[in-house]
Amino acid sequence: MEKQKQGNACPYAKKCGGCIFSGKAYEEQLKIKQKNVTDLLGKFGKVAPILGAKCPEHYRNKVHGIFGRDRQGNVFTGIYEEKSHRIVPVENCMIEDEKATAILKTLSTMAKQFKLQVYDEDRETGLLRHALIRVGRTTGEIMVVLVLSGPILPSKNNFTKELCRRHPEITTVVLNINDKNTSMVLGNRNIVLYGKGYIEDVLCGLRFRISPSSFYQINSEQTERLYKKAMEFAGLTGKERVIDAYCGIGTIGACAAGKAREVIGVELNRDAVKDAITNAKLNQLKNIRFWNDDAGKFMVNMAANHEQADIVFMDPPRSGSTPEFINSVNTLKPKKVVYVSCDPVTLKRDLELFQQKGWKVKAIQPVDMFPYTGHVETVCLLTRKI
């Protein structure tokens, strides 16, 4: 692990609220996160030493900028101040991909050059709302998503040509239309201006298609370590039937497919399921299939039809799982559950419920997916007591 100097502070940290460990040596950040996870989860068993990042800066492969305008009329991109909708201008972010940051700066200057109006939330006027940059860290492919309040970008062809001239590394440009008064960044409609409308990246030796709205882990290097640990906990031998619950675009299920007899991915988001099916074909995985359904209900139906599964991978959102889902796992009775969590607080709550249902926590491995922030991912192995 590279040794980080003390005092590498971010000037936006106090207003942004994201990097709570700004200015703190990375080794010290890891000690604090280790203690936090141990304090929360230590009662379930020994917490393994946290897996720290080799490169804890500029790791974010997804960068979001909100368009704003200062009193002099200059356009900028930034982030919302913590617990508000005031936009903090950001020139450089220590955890965001540097190419993406440079593209955001170019978009700001081009917005003024092309006389594009910045969206005003209060008046609901203007055009430019957000910019989303996604970077394939392995492939080098870059997608620029411009989020507009309407479907018409003036001089769109010239704008796109100029953007790609300044940044030839860009492989696709997409307009996303968000015409609703909402805190959601993306709308439902996309218009491709340049390229394929998506990028691809390689993770754990597998290729994945990433669309504007696809969920894809933001720290590619640490995600590989997280998934490898999840596969190690699963102990796949090639004979198992696996369920990948909350499967998203199918990353965990695809990693398991090469080591299992059969993988079933279940996901509520219809667009994510489409991406997952595409990704399975992209990697020629013939033993994985995906269902657009609630994973808990799906597993209850499996049990009712006397079907079985050996292992359940679950990677729920930050809010954690639900009692209904945990009950469905108990009904299906797999041999193992591998729980990937992005919040140890909700993980603690869910593990307590698993314990009440007769499950035992066999291993706990924290992974620092988000250096400088207070977030930490944890992967746990659970087995049935009886």
Rg from C-alpha positions?
22 Å
Stretches where pLDDT is under 50 for at least 5 consecutive residues are: 1-5
User: Which structural class should the secondary elements be placed in?
Assistant: alpha/beta
**What letter string, H or E per element, gives the SSE order?**
HHEEEHEEHEEEEHEHEHEHEHEHEE
Helical coverage, percent range? 25-40%
Average of pLDDT: 92
Q: Main beta sheet: strand number and arrangement?
A: 7 strands, mixed
What does the model show?
- This protein is α/β, with parallel strands linked by helices and 386 residues long.
- It is 30% helix and 26% strand.
- The chain is built from ten helices and 16 strands.
- The chain has helices at residues 13-16, 26-41, 98-113, 156-166, 220-234, 251-257, 270-282, 295-304, 323-332, 344-356; strands spanning 62-69, 75-80, 87-89, 128-135, 142-148, 170-177, 189-194, 199-203, 206-210, 241-245, 262-267, 288-292, 311-314, 336-341, 359-367, 377-384.
- The strands form three sheets. Strands 3-2-1-4-5-6-7 form a seven-stranded mixed beta sheet. The chain has a seven-stranded mixed beta sheet with strand order 12-11-10-13-14-16-15, sandwiched between helices.
- Residues 1-5 have low confidence and may be disordered.
